[in-house]
Amino acid sequence: RQPDYRLWPDPSAISTVIGFFTNLATVREVSGLTQREVSTRSAGRISTGTISKLVNGDTLPTTWTSTAAYLSACGVPDDQIQLWHGAWQELRRNAPAAQQRTATPGGSTAEAGKARRRLSALWRGRGH
User: Fold this and answer.
1) What DSSP designation does 59 have?
2) Fewer CB within 10 Å: C terminus or N terminus of the chain?
3) What's the whole-model pTM score?
């Protein structure tokens, strides 16, 4: 098996819930796959609706299973998936339930989505 030299987002740099979701969205973009392709590659473990919730959510997933399936289907290597798991655990551990919702200046999920799209556009513009 060939090593994967893609420039995956670094999960160890994630310190916020919005950062978690933004980087999950970037993973799919780096993979070059559509949501449908990711769902197909997951062998039915995650639907396109679940994928949309993972990349556009405002609350950390309560279980790790869907996130792991998503990352694997996108082609993220197992050692990096373990780093993602650590980031997810750290966010779950450090954010009280009331703060696990994404805090944005306007408190709007739509604004959080706009911020993620702007960050993704910046990421793509850097040639990643």
Assistant:
1) B
2) N
3) 0.72
